[in-house]
Amino acid sequence: MRLYNYYRSGTSHRTRIALNLKGLNYEYVAVNLRTGEHRDRNYMELNTQGLVPTLEVDGERLIQSPAILEYLEERWPEPPLLPSDLPGRARVRALAAVIACDIHPINNLRILNALRNDFGADEATVKRWCGQWIEAGFDTLESLLAGDSGRGRFCYGDSPTLADVYLVPQLYSARRFEVDLTPYPILTTVDGVCAELDAFRMAEPGRQPDAA
């Protein structure tokens, strides 16, 4: 198993967490987004989108972290990252989708570079842009978790699910962009619980071989 990824990429971060939670060993292959390595011909042959992560496993080449995570869940169902009941599975997927669909895509590197290069945004403006959409998504997540009286220690229940796998990298990104996390005590509490687990700690960006 080989994972092509970048240490600070949120999609890579969540994939590392899931692999660790599943107890799967993989070869770490760094793809430097800052130097444009993801646009090199060799990498584009692996992933025609020129994005990370790419996972090579069982003779397959997988792209797009949501698809990769679902593949891992189906191929290695233990320990499960989705609840056993249908409503629970839908809830966890919805929590994850707030991040995967509503926050991350408009705050990733290519969007931020477009703001800088095509629209003349300075770094303060870029930071405000990121904060605006992170806060909007976190407002939703905090409200959803606050309204779940049976939530448990994690986003759903007392063991990590895909919701936590998505949440932790987004909180890392929020801190990078200096978002005030004071209004989100539940999210930060869940983050602290996750940080107690080796699977999350070993996936942290600063622990990766290509960390700057």
Largest sheet: 4 strands, mixed
Structural class given helices, strands, pairing? alpha+beta
How far from one another are the termini? 24 Å
What is the count of β-strands?
4
Radius of gyration: 17 Å
β-strand percent reads 5-15%
Largest sheet: spatial strand order: 2-1-3-4
- As a percent range, the share of helical residues equals 40-55%
Mean pLDDT: 96
Oligomeric state: single chain
SSE run:
EHEHEEHHHHHHH
Number of helices: 9
Low-confidence stretches: none
Structure, briefly:
This protein is α+β, with helices and mostly antiparallel strands and 212 residues long. The protein has helices at residues 10-21, 41-46, 65-75, 86-103, 109-119, 123-146, 162-176, 185-194, 198-201; strands spanning 2-5, 27-30, 54-57, 60-63.
